[in-house]
Amino acid sequence: EAGVAQSPRYKIIEKRQSVAFWCNPISGHATLYWYQQILGQGPKLLIQFQNNGVVDDSQLPKDRFSAERLKGVDSTLKIQPAKLEDSAVYLCASSLDPPGLAGQNIQYFGAGTRLSVL
Amino acid sequence: LAKTTQPISMDSYEGQEVNITCSHNNIATNDYITWYQQFPSQGPRFIIQGYKTKVTNEVASLFIPADRKSSTLSLPRVSLSDTAVYYCLEYGGSQGNLIFGKGTKLSVKP
Lengths: 118, 110
Hints:
The structure holds two protein chains of two kinds.
Chain A (H helix, E strand, L loop, with lengths): L4 E3 L2 E4 L5 E6 L6 E7 L6 E7 L2 E4 L8 E4 L6 E5 L8 E8 L12 E2 L3 E5 L1
Parallel strand pairs in A: 2-11
Antiparallel strand pairs in A: 1-3, 3-8, 4-5, 4-9, 5-6, 7-8, 9-10, 9-11
Chain B lengths: L8 E5 L4 E6 L8 E7 L6 E6 L2 E4 L4 E4 L5 E6 L8 E8 L12 E6 L1
Parallel strand pairs in B: 1-9
Antiparallel strand pairs in B: 2-7, 3-4, 3-8, 5-6, 6-7, 8-9
């Protein structure tokens, strides 16, 4: 079974530039997550999709971050404009079980995109 | 703010059993307890999940007492390749409920 695919693996940009990350979840997984992981910290949930609808985006900095999941499959996360503090690894994950189902919710993560903002 | 509390780091030697305990002081009735493992430059990987008592798979065991205020991940006979960060997580499907802490950095020495 193919895992969660993310691209690019690495990205270096200057502050105030824009950047986009792409994620292809495991086939059949209804729920997709984007996380931000700053060095030395655990992943922080940015946004959670159920099919192509947003379930939780309470921690997404909406003035600069946006995400979409067209057709309920692939997803893109965009930052515009980027700030120095956005330097982190951006992880995408997917799960078979939908949110609201007690328990389960085993998430499968991609390798992430390491973003460096200079 | 992380909902769980776990040690920042632990050291062990090859062949030993390692137990990592996580506190779940405010766990909700519907929450399951899940543990993930993360190697450098990789995303977290699911290890084990449970609701109460004991769960065992080919990788680890998870012990959850009756009050569910804590959980213990047990790794039998660790090897150098078990050196990683281990996260405990509670999740019951509620919005805003997916919170990872800083994890426990396990270092296994020869």
